[in-house]
Write a structure and sequence with these properties.
Helix content is 25%, strand content 26%. By secondary structure, it is an alpha+beta fold. The protein has 2 domains: 136 residues, FAD/NAD(P)-binding domain; 91 residues, D-Amino Acid Oxidase, subunit A, domain 2 (D-Amino Acid Oxidase, Chain A, domain 2). The strands form 3 sheets. It has a 5-stranded antiparallel beta sheet, covered by helices on one side. It is elongated and about 65 Å long.
């Protein structure tokens, strides 16, 4: 089960870049024998302690030897089909694009001590901040919270970089983090009780950069029954059962 359906909302520029990358991955995958199909997983069917097939919305059954939950912010819904509680929720994150009249040469990605971040993006800059826990409910809409920019982000930008006092906000979008409530780190690998169910969930905003390692690690687990190149067992599902967080402190 590899549920590719829809794309995370990104800026037009990022979307073009990501789309090219996706196309590249997709054509290589096809060359290697991957079949893509577009449907929705509605349920899982068992034989003993193994998943035997996934039931699709069009009533087809997909049979398989191994099933990976890669459903992003909807991962807990897939897990619940297997009777498993997964502490992953959808959390909205807004990204704002702004233009600055003054040229700022060599500006790196900057993360302010408040958590506000900014970096150049073409001729403009992008910025954002994660809201405090009290203002960060489970969320499935894509409405941009412009107050976040006006009231929280802009004053901090202007304090940090004087030239940002007179910026113009020119674009914005919202997307969803698959937020791991326990420790904001990925839940990776097989499930202790269900032999052929694997997780790649709860990336909490850093899944793109971890994707190549995650892909390799999971394929090693599935094909060889263990990690070979990188031991990623600290991210096992077990830590959820043991309530043993590996706290990620640098989520922006
Ligand atoms: C604003 C924003 C900024 C980010 N910035 C960064 C960054 O700078 N660096 C970084 O590394 N990461 C970043 N991320 C995080 C990164 O985008 C995610 O970690 C990554 O996209 C997760 O990939 P995924 O494949 O696990 O999930 P997704 O990309 O969410 O894909 C899940 C897929 O599962 C499908 N699906 C769900 N349920 C079902 C079902 N029942 N049946 C079939 N299909 C289903 C969905 O339609 C979707 O296509 C950012 C995220 C956001 C929102």
């Amino acid at each position: 089960m590899c549920p590719f359906k829809g794309l995370t909302r990104l800026s037009p520029r990022l979307c073009r870049g990501s789309f090219n990358l996706l196309q590249l991955f997709r054509s290589k995958n096809k060359e290697l024998g991957v079949d893509y199909l577009y449907d929705e997983v509605m349920g899982l069917k068992y034989k003993g302690n193994k998943i035997h097939s996934a039931l699709l919305k069009n009533n087809d059954l997909i049979h398989g030897e191994a099933f990976i939950n890669a459903a992003g912010p909807k991962a807990s819904r897939i897990a619940s089909m297997a009777g498993i509680q997964l502490p992953v929720e959808s959390r909205k994150r807004c990204v704002f694009v702004f233009h600055c009249r003054d040229e700022i040469q060599g500006c790196p990605l900057v993360v302010d001590s408040s958590g506000v971040y900014f970096r150049p993006e073409g001729e403009n800059f992008i910025c954002g901040v994660s809201p405090g826990e009290e203002n960060d409910p489970q969320c499935f809409d894509y409405e941009v919270d412009y107050n976040l920019f006006n009231e929280t982000i802009w004053p901090i930008l202007a304090h940090r970089v004087p030239a940002f006092e007179s910026i113009k906000q020119v674009n914005a979008w919202a997307g969803h983090y698959a937020y791991n409530l326990l420790d904001q780190n990925v839940i990776l690998g097989s499930h202790p009780q269900i032999d052929n169910l694997y997780f790649a969930n709860g990336f909490s905003g850093h899944g793109l950069q971890q994707a190549p390692a995650v892909g390799r690690a999971l394929s090693e687990q599935i094909v060889h029954g263990r990690y070979r190149s990188l031991d990623l067992s600290i991210f096992d599902f077990d830590r959820i059962l043991k309530n043993a967080p590996i706290k990620e402190l640098n989520v922006i």
